[in-house]
Specification:
With 227 residues, this protein is of the alpha/beta class. The protein has helices at 28-31, 36-39, 45-48, 51-63, 84-87, 141-147, 160-173, 190-205, 213-226, and strands at 3-5, 12-14, 19-24, 68-73, 99-100, 103-104, 126-130, 152-158, 177-186, 209-211. The relative contact order is 0.20.
Length: 227
């Protein structure tokens, strides 16, 4: 069964038997007050606003028994997988590995590195700790998706122009068809989100497609009506 999802730059043909949802880095350190994003001077309330939409998107995939992947940007406690060029960039008040309000920043297993409770993974859903911005590097995710015959990826999460876009570009290079849910992704900078989405859909969908959640829901509802 193919679902025709109204999207930019043109309709996305979704095959539920070959599609998975990827929720990028909806973790406390990026989203909650006192986390890493907050210490960098960002307005984290912009990111918290997409939690209800993202929760509804996750619920839609769970309802239809479709695979869900959650990612976290996370490093080993000894920082052996965190290059100095990444840890030492800029002049933040706190750096990766430093002790923050929710434990060591972006370190696997720390409270701040956990996915927000509203979007907590369910049993059987894949959780990937990724040491980079993209979800494929040093994670084995491509092989996992291949084992499940996944060829299409629906994206949500933060931030649009960094880890989400990087992961979409990586997925595009590996042959996946990618659909971004516009109201289930966000940036600390609204102009960056807008620019990233335009880059994704430009030139006939050079990276992928984009649509609001309502259009995806409509496609599922229409498929149910059509039988």
């Amino acid at each position: 069964m193919t679902l025709f999802v109204s999207a930019r730059p043109y309709d996305f043909e979704l095959d539920p038997s070959q599609a998975a949802l990827v929720v990028i880095d909806m973790q406390r350190d990026f989203i909650e007050p006192g986390g890493f994003g907050d210490t960098l001077g960002n307005d984290v309330s912009r990111l918290t606003k997409i939690i209800p939409t993202t929760a509804a998107l996750i619920a839609l995939f769970r309802k239809h028994g479709m695979p869900i992947v959650h990612t976290r940007e996370a490093h080993r406690p000894d920082l052996s997988d965190c290059p100095p060029a990444k840890r030492l960039r800029g002049k933040p008040g706190l750096r990766i590995g430093d002790e923050g309000a929710m434990g060591r920043i972006l370190i696997a297993g720390e409270p701040g590195n956990q996915i927000v409770s509203e979007l907590a993974p369910a049993a059987g859903e894949v959780v990937i700790d990724k040491p980079g911005k993209g979800m494929f590097w040093a994670t084995g995710l491509h092989e996992m998706l291949g084992d499940r015959d996944v060829t299409q990826l629906v994206f949500a999460g933060v931030t649009t122009e960094v880890c989400v876009q990087t992961s979409m570009r990586e997925a595009n290079d590996r042959g996946y068809e990618c659909l971004l849910i516009e109201d289930a992704t966000e940036s600390y900078f609204p102009e960056f989100k807008a620019a990233a989405i335009e880059m994704i859909v430009a030139q006939g969908g050079i990276v992928g497609w984009a649509t609001p959640l309502a259009k995806l829901e409509e496609a599922f509802e229409q498929a149910t009506i059509d039988g």
